[in-house]
Fold this protein.
Amino acid sequence: MALDPGKSVADYRALAARYDHATRRINGVRRRAVAALVLQPDETVLDVGCGTGHCFAQILQAIGSGGHLLAFDHSADLLAIAQSRVAAGGWRNVSIVESRAESVDFRDAIARHGMAQPAALLFSYVHDVMQSDAALDNLLAQAAPRARVAITSTRLWPRSWWPLCVPVNRYLYRTHERYITHREENFDRPWAKLAERMEGFQLRVYWPGWRYVATGRLRPA
Ligand SMILES: C[S@@+](CC[C@H](N)C(=O)[O-])C[C@H]1O[C@@H](n2cnc3c(N)ncnc32)[C@H](O)[C@@H]1O
């Protein structure tokens, strides 16, 4: 199945209320991904496909009240939870937009608030976004030159881990049915298209072998 935004929005509508609980096992690797951005006070950060805003608190703690967090997602249901997080935290330096990655545009907001372009981009469990060239072209065009990137998501076990990779990858394929619409492309290397646009690419794999954090910087255009 190709990328299917309609299915994605519908799947996340059904998942929204229990999304944070259902994904609690990836809290650790999400934390590692945000830490790998080595965020600095006053920076602008883009949280790609932010979902319920699970990573907001950690990002905001690092950039402080002088920084800006830009975030978007195409799921209104997940964003409603992200908005309540922002309200509960009393955070005033977060801009959340309901939009597709292929068309989201932060240029006006950046100019209006006199903020810098994003110096750091977080791709946390956004497999579908990472398989869309149009999305990557649009997002990277709005980032600062050589912006830092951190990527985390599920990857299939490598074929060299045969024969155990067969049942494990079958399990991963099945359990990601409602989180990813396009598992056919690059599920073994979700970062592949983004890595082509990066330099200094580094990959660290974590237990149980399907979790990873990849880092690097955007390659100058
Ligand atoms: C597995 S969730 C990850 C959410 C969050 N980043 C996290 O770490 O919990 C994938 C997110 O990507 C969003 N998404 C998928 N394709 C998208 C697209 N083309 N444009 C915007 N959001 C998209 C979904 O709505 C969903 O919130």
Remarks:
- Residues 76-89 form the longest helix (14 residues).
- The beta strands are 44-48, 68-73, 94-98, 120-124, 148-154, 198-206, 211-218.
